[in-house]
Amino acid sequence: MANSHNSFKNYKHLASYIIALILVVVFVISCKSKNSASTEYVVLSKITKKDSLASLAAFEKVYSVLMHPRCMNCHPNGDIPLQGDDSHIHNMLPQRGPDGMGISTMKCANCHASTGVPGESTPPGNPLWHLPPSDMKMVFQGRSPRELALQLVNPKLNGHKNLQELRVHAEDTLVKNGWTMGGNRELPPLTYNEFKDAWYEWIDNGAVAPAN
Amino acid sequence: MALFTIHVNGESKQVDVDADTPILWVLRDNLRLLGTKYGCGIAHCGVCTIHLDGDAVRSCAYPISAVGDKKIVTIEGLSEEGDHPVQKAWLEHDVPQCGYCQAGQIMTASSLLAQNPNPTDEEIRRAMNGNLCRCATYTRINRAIRTAAKDM
């Protein structure tokens, strides 16, 4: 009886040693792998500290560009685009149309070719010249800074874009067109690169909306 | 200068012009198709309207390099005998006064009716907004379009 009790105790000790040994080996292997083969691990996204004040300051710059005629003229509060440095209603009264491309004989592309022709007041060219579609008009005209910021980050109002897609929108050819229309048209208050930097800074720091 | 092969009124034509030359000047100066008129030169008046794959394009603002293989139709090519329903209606209603804008008016009206054979007055007005007439023949233009629509 005493012998069998002792052998059971020995077996228990042996099992404990084996388990402890396994744990040590696993720990050593994991430490070694972590040091030598980091590419096998999922890289966690860099945690960046968002600066809401920087976001607000950047949006002030962004707003100055978006409300400039070169941008706002194609984001009118109505179904007819605006025109010129004074943002008057577009001559010939072209209509937005369901897809934003105009209607029947008055499509945007009927005058705005893929590239323009030389001249002071000739229509600027772009292969995709259009307004926002009628089911999501993305109006800039008349929006306060807060209203515009909230609209820009709302996928139900911004063309179904998440923040990353919104960020990339700065590369859109029609956005860039604001700086390349030519003629005697006034340019936006920032250069394109200054605008893009401000746009990224606003979004990357939380796309904060001003208080008013 | 560069060589461009374009399709005009059913024929293939080759022209040697600068890439940013407006179609209008290729038609008038190179091909001597003088029915398409010069008005404002900035796509504001519609006088220079032609069809580009059926669309009513302002030829003064459209560079030859953007034409590609699209088919151009001018007032000379709208019909062989000048008997397009819009042309017949124009005669019936005695639309032109001085006549300078009329080629553009007819090209826009025929593009409208090809897309929408039975337009409402509102649709006619919106479609023709881009074509100015200094003689103000607008009332007769609208009547002629309604008449032409019956023959489309």
Plain-language structure description:
The complex is a heterodimer of chains A (212) and B (152). With 212 residues, chain A is mainly α. Chain A has two domains: 39 residues; 153 residues, no CATH class. Chain A contains seven helices and four strands, in the order H-H-H-E-E-E-E-H-H-H-H. In chain A, strands 1-2 form a two-stranded antiparallel ribbon. In chain A, strand 3 and strand 4 form a beta hairpin. The longest helix of chain A is centred in the N-terminal third of the chain and has 35 residues. The radius of gyration of chain A is 30 Å and the shape is elongated. By secondary structure, chain B is an alpha+beta fold. Chain B folds into two domains: 76 residues, Ubiquitin-like (UB roll); 67 residues, Orthogonal Bundle (DNA polymerase, domain 1). Chain B has five helices and five strands. A five-stranded mixed beta sheet of chain B has the order 2-1-5-3-4, sandwiched between helices. In chain B, a hairpin with a 2-residue loop joins strand 3 and strand 4. The model of chain B has no long low-confidence stretch (mean pLDDT 97). At the A-B interface, strand 4 of A face strand 4, helix 3 and helix 4 of B. Chain B: InterPro entries: 2Fe-2S-bd, 2Fe-2S-bd_dom_sf, 2Fe-2S_ferredoxin-like_sf, 2Fe-2S_ferredoxin-type, 2Fe2S_fd_BS, Beta-grasp_dom_sf, Diverse_Oxidoreductases. Chain B: GO terms for molecular function: 2 iron, 2 sulfur cluster binding; metal ion binding; oxidoreductase activity. Chain B: Keywords: 2Fe-2S, Iron, Iron-sulfur, Metal-binding, Oxidoreductase. Chain B: This is (2Fe-2S)-binding protein. Chain A: InterPro entries: Multihaem_cyt_sf. Chain A: Keywords: Membrane, Transmembrane, Transmembrane helix.
CATH topology of the largest domain in chain B, what is it called? Ubiquitin-like (UB roll)
Strand pairing plus helix content of chain B: what structural class?
A: alpha+beta
Number of strands of chain B: 5
Distance between the termini of chain B: 42 Å
Which structural class do you get from the secondary structure elements of chain A? mainly alpha
**Order of helices and strands of chain A, N to C?**
HHHEEEEHHHH
Q: Which of globular, elongated, flat, extended, rod-shaped describes the shape of chain B?
A: globular
CATH superfamily of the largest domain in chain B: Beta-grasp domain
Strand order of the largest sheet of chain B: 2-1-5-3-4
What's the number of extended β-strand segments of chain A?
4
**Secondary structure tally, helices of chain A:** 7
Helical amount of chain B: 25-40%
Q: Order of strands across the biggest sheet of chain A?
A: 1-2
